[in-house]
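Quick note —
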Amino acid sequence: MPRKRTGYDAACYYDGKLLGRCTKADSDAYTLLMNACGGDAARVLREYAYFSPELKAILEKAALMQADRSLTGGMFHAPKSSPWGEVQSCETLCPGVFLVSTASHGGTMVANEVAAVLSPAAKKCGFKDKGYICYEEDAQESVVLRELLDKKLWKIPDRIKDKGQFEE
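Predicted structure written out below.
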């Protein structure tokens, strides 16, 4: 009986940037699916259902890069206002996803164009406001942060000393 291989023997790239390491089969599937969908990673994610976790993460990263480029010519801009008031500070977690603070409150804002990488359940947890799906810092924010962590689109920042406690 053949042994299951561990490790990766290929990688996927988009626009010259490494999206992730994967198996040769995933790399071939990435090329085939992207060609079949005219190079639109969000369309691949919508139209096809079954991916390895590595290929899905790669396609989600490509979709984020494409959404970023098509919306703003290459860069999402930090929001100036939020449902919680005028933004005082803003941290970009990944393209199109912002952690905002106001004088009294804050949360995470996900640009509508980037929301394709979120699960339907995560989208339902947030509320829509001016082109964003918003997640209140005291209530729903952990949902979107967990999804970004699981999809390897964001990592816990170094300023968080107890990363295990944060993840829990």
